[in-house]
Amino acid sequence: MAESRYRTTSERRAEIQENAARMGIDDEYISRLVDTFYERIRDDETLGPIFLDNVPNWDVHMPKMKDFWSSVALHSSRYSGRPVPAHVKLIKDVEPRHFELWLALFEKTLEDTAPTKEAIPYFMDRAERIARSLQLAMFGDPELPELQS
Ligand code: HEM
Predict the structure, then answer these.
(1) 108: domain range?
(2) d(CA 47, CA 41)
């Protein structure tokens, strides 16, 4: 009978990292992706001012975002922050259409920099899922009727 057992966290992580490496995704690429993306964010006429007004310290934000994407894409466990409260507090400045712009800019950055074409949906699937859950926390579910008080 074939041996059956649960994989350990480090076996699972190794598998995810091997799969990512086959698509050319590693921390070096993630660092380049994040640098290029935030350079473009800062230059964007709509998103630029929102980020410039709300990122308290870029020297903290950039390594944090590299750790975040390393955790998402490579399961490196380097990020341990709380994205939901960080975005809920931006409610006065951010609308759903800004998320559309964010995702379009992220996709364009991937198209211009990705090491393989498989890397593009790998990042986009994850970004879209996280963007949806951030928007749910910020704006609620537009499919649900408002509850009467
Ligand atoms: C229009 C869309 C978005 C805007 C305007 C926005 C803006 C910001 C700003 C201003 C911060 C810094 C907050 C602070 O340090 O106090 C931040 C942090 C962060 N953002 Fe976004 N963001 C957007 C979408 C996203 C998306 C789609 C993701 C993930 C796919 C994301 C992931 C993060 C993470 C991980 C942090 C760090 C939170 C922490 O402090 O641990 N953001 N964002």
Answers:
(1) 25-139
(2) 6
Task: Decide if 145 is inside a domain.
Answer: no
Residue 65 sits in a domain whose CATH number is 1.10.490.10
Ligand 1 centroid – CA 21 distance (Å): 26
Nearest CA to ligand 1 atom 11: 55
Copy the structure tokens of residue 120.
């593009």
Q: Please list the pLDDT of the chain residue by residue as tens digits (149 residues).
A: 556 678 899 999 999 999 999 999 999 999 999 999 999 999 999 999 999 999 999 999 999 999 999 999 999 999 999 999 999 999 999 999 999 999 999 999 999 999 999 999 999 999 999 999 999 999 998 777 776 65
Q: Is 69 left (phi over 0), alpha (psi -120 to 50) or beta?
A: alpha
Q: What is the domain count for the chain?
A: 1
Using a cut of 0.90, tell me whether the model's pTM lies above it. yes
Ligand 1 atom with least separation from CA of 81: 41
Residue-by-residue DSSP string for 39-61: HHHHH-TTHHHHHHHH-S-HHHH
